[in-house]
Design brief:
By secondary structure, this protein is mainly beta. It has helices spanning 138-142, 220-234, 248-255, 259-271; strands at 7-15, 19-24, 27-32, 46-53, 59-62, 73-82, 86-90, 98-101, 118-125, 131-135, 156-165, 168-173, 178-182, 195-203, 209-212, 239-240, 275-278, 282-285. The strands form four sheets. The chain has a five-stranded antiparallel beta sheet, with no helix packed on it. Strands 8-7-6-9-10 form a five-stranded antiparallel beta sheet, with no helix packed on it. A five-stranded mixed β-barrel has the order 11-12-13-15-14. Residues 143-215 form the Conserved virulence factor B third S1 domain.
Length: 287
Amino acid sequence: MMKQGDIQTAVVRDEQAEALYVQISDQILTLPKEGLTKPYPAIGEQVEGMVYMDRNQQWCFQVTLPDSRLDAFGWGVVVDVRRDLGAFLDIGLVNKDVPVSLDELPLIQDEWPQIGDRLLVQLSTDRKNRLWANLAKKEEASAYTRKAPARLANQDIHATVYQLIRDGALAISTEGYQCFLHESEQLVPVRLGEVLAARVVDTHLDGRLNLSTRPRAHEALEGDATMILRILEKDPTGFLPLHDKSKPADIQALLGISKGQFKRAVGNLMKQGLIEQVKGEGLYLQK
């Protein structure tokens, strides 16, 4: 029996309008022309590629190998999320989405990836020969990163979260740098697979970067107002239980900013007619 994800050599036996048909031992597999470049392999020619079963449970063969394989990690794009099953990824196989089991996803569903997010995964098969995508951990992801230069301090970068840990999130930048985002530096909580727009707040001798999604000092007023507005928009009731008489410690605990910053941001939002402050209650989103 063939194993999904194996790289094997096949012989081209036939050509039809939409696909070539190749043979491995006594098994005929479909090689879709989608993704192939002309001229197509000739009948009788040997080709190397990946073996898999498509969403119609038909054996297929693909010569353009995805980055995610049984022996290698690569990025997959989330194309579907099922709360009872997990996430499904497009890793580059024709007519095939590969699942990430819900057992590998965070316990808190707000931290699950969304459609369009990216996950760093390696393929595996189970005893039923089903193909799965397994999430990378820090030690595995390190092999796919490179040392960042010290000159990046205070620069803006984009990075994708590949693992959530107790005190923050691990990410890899577009350039391939290993990054860490502490929970105290998150403007709002991040999710697995999210592509972050962040800034570098520290560089390490080993090339790792510390990031922040919080605004710079000169951007703080606008940033604090934006943060409060986003929190209100995400709340089903459009309510935040803070007001101008709230204790500074309560404001710091909920928003991570001082009472002075809070009052300036609230004043800004009220002037724009975006929120209403009810004495003794809190802030309400104006709809």
